[in-house]
Design a protein that fits this description.
Leucine-rich repeat, LRR (right-handed beta-alpha superhelix); 19-stranded mixed β-sheet; 6 helices; 15% helix; 23% strand; elongated; ATP binding; LRR_dom_sf; repeat
Length: 445
């Protein structure tokens, strides 16, 4: 029964996505179906052979590559009313991802054929995943101006051997929505003209070797994601970030930005995810403008020596679920409002600071949190965590020599400090059992 349902689903899917030329044949049975131009077909063969020469592509796929394409090659057929004899490749997906997306697999000795950027004038999506992982492969010195005129998505993921400066790729991409270059060997500066591509909704350039700085512009009215994390960027983060008013995610973590966290970040009223951790921002404290960002759900500033105290802003940020404030030189007490206001909190890191005083009793309300890390501070008094917090796993408290961990119902583990009342209760129980045993032995005798 399940198989018949699946077959019916596949049949309906095929019928709903069948190329228009199949339908058009009813009107003109003598008209041949549109075909891929020979030059474009040859370019597909060349590109496939460059990423994996072990597969005999011409033998396995000898016919029109749009009529019976290999996985990862997608063509668009024109509307049935349009008189044309040709179709074109509109998507290329290279590199095996999973059994559900069986793109052409790349071999360890894959190379980059320049035709990839020269022969596909109708390409809307280019996706390359784990193709260049062996010998070094460089971007071409030049790319034809026509490349990317209708491109909507340019995605290169986990190609560490692919190097070069990406400026050569960034042309007049008037329709580009996604620029995703993750885990490659790209270097040099981030081209300024990226910020002139007004249709962009995502710029993700993480885990490359980009250097220098950047300057955002207000032209990117549709940008939702800006991720430059894990690069070698330096200097001041630009105040113009605040002009990207539609941002939902901003990630500049693991770079070498210095100076002040730009106040312009506070203008991003729609921002949900902010990660500036492990840069060199310093000496200005936790920014108070966080309280003016009502949609913020996660904020990570760890590894910046911002110093100062944790501000009382949490009543305005009740939707926060993740806070990373490790290794920031924070001082003073932990605000009680972090426990009473943040009901959705699942991750809190305040470790390796100079915090002192008691842990607020309100922290005992954070039972839904997955991790609370308060290690290596100067906290004192009794920790307000019940057995359900799994102290040592879910809650981390080591490195606070004057902090007492109280457990009332569970025998203490080695090295734990218990309250005097709990210790007295345990001693009384032992004495009572001893008396009972002695009486039992005397009666038996």
């Amino acid at each position: 029964m399940a198989t018949s349902h699946l077959n019916l689903f596949l049949l309906l899917t095929f019928l709903s996505t069948a190329p228009p030329f199949i339908i058009s044949q009813e009107n003109n049975l003598d008209a041949p179906p549109p075909q891929l131009p020979p030059s474009e077909q040859e370019a597909v063969y060349r590109v496939l052979n460059s990423v994996n020469s072990a597969i005999p592509w011409r033998t396995v796929f000898p016919d029109d590559l749009c009529a019976s394409p290999p996985d990862g090659v997608v063509c668009d057929y024109p509307d049935a009313s349009v008189a044309t004899t040709s179709v074109h490749v509109t998507e290329l997906h290279l590199g095996y991802v999973s059994d559900y997306a069986q793109n052409p697999p790349c071999s360890p000795n894959a190379t980059l054929d320049p035709l990839l950027f020269a022969s596909f004038k109708h390409l809307r999506k280019l996706f390359v995943y784990k193709c260049f992982t062996g010998a070094r492969v460089s971007l071409p010195a030049t790319v034809p101006e026509g490349f990317g005129s209708v491109l909507e998505e340019l995605v290169f993921i986990e190609n560490p051997s692919l190097s070069g400066e990406i400026g050569v790729l960034i042309g007049n991409f008037t329709k580009l929505r996604r620029l995703v270059l993750i885990g490659n060997g790209f270097h040099g500066s981030i081209p300024g003209r990226i910020f002139d591509l007004v249709s962009l909704q995502e710029i993700t350039l993480s885990r490359n070797s980009f250097t220098g700085g950047f300057n955002a512009t207000s032209r990117l009215k549709n940008l939702k994601v800006l991720d430059f994390s894990h690069n070698l960027l330096t200097g001041n983060a630009p105040e113009s970030i605040g002009d990207l008013t539609e941002l939902l995610k901003l990630d500049l973590s693991y770079n070498s930005f210095s100076g002040e966290i730009p106040p312009g970040v506070g203008k991003l009223k729609k921002l949900e995810f902010l990660d500036l951790s492990y840069n060199r921002f310093g000496n200005h404290g936790v920014p108070l403008f966080l309280a003016e960002m009502p949609r913020l759900r996660e904020v990570y500033l760890s590894g910046n020596l911002l110093g100062g105290r944790i501000p009382e802003i949490w009543k305005n940020l009740e939707g926060i679920s993740g806070i990373g404030f490790s290794r920031m030189g924070l001082q003073g007490n932990i605000p009680a409002s972090m426990g009473s206001s943040l009901e959705n909190l699942w991750y809190l890191a305040l470790d390796n600071n100079n915090l002192d005083g008691r842990i607020p009793v309100e922290f005992g309300l954070l039972e839904s949190a997955s991790e609370i890390n308060l290690e290596n501070n100067n906290l004192t008094g009794e920790a307000p965590f019940s057995d359900s917090f799994r102290v040592g796993k879910k809650v981390r408290l080591s490195g606070n020599p004057h902090l007492l961990l109280v457990k009332e119902s569970v025998p203490p583990l080695a090295g734990e400090v218990v309250s005097s009342s709990a210790a007295s209760g345990d001693l009384a129980s032992v004495c009572f059992l001893t008396v009972v045993m002695v009486l039992y032995i005397l009666i038996k005798q």
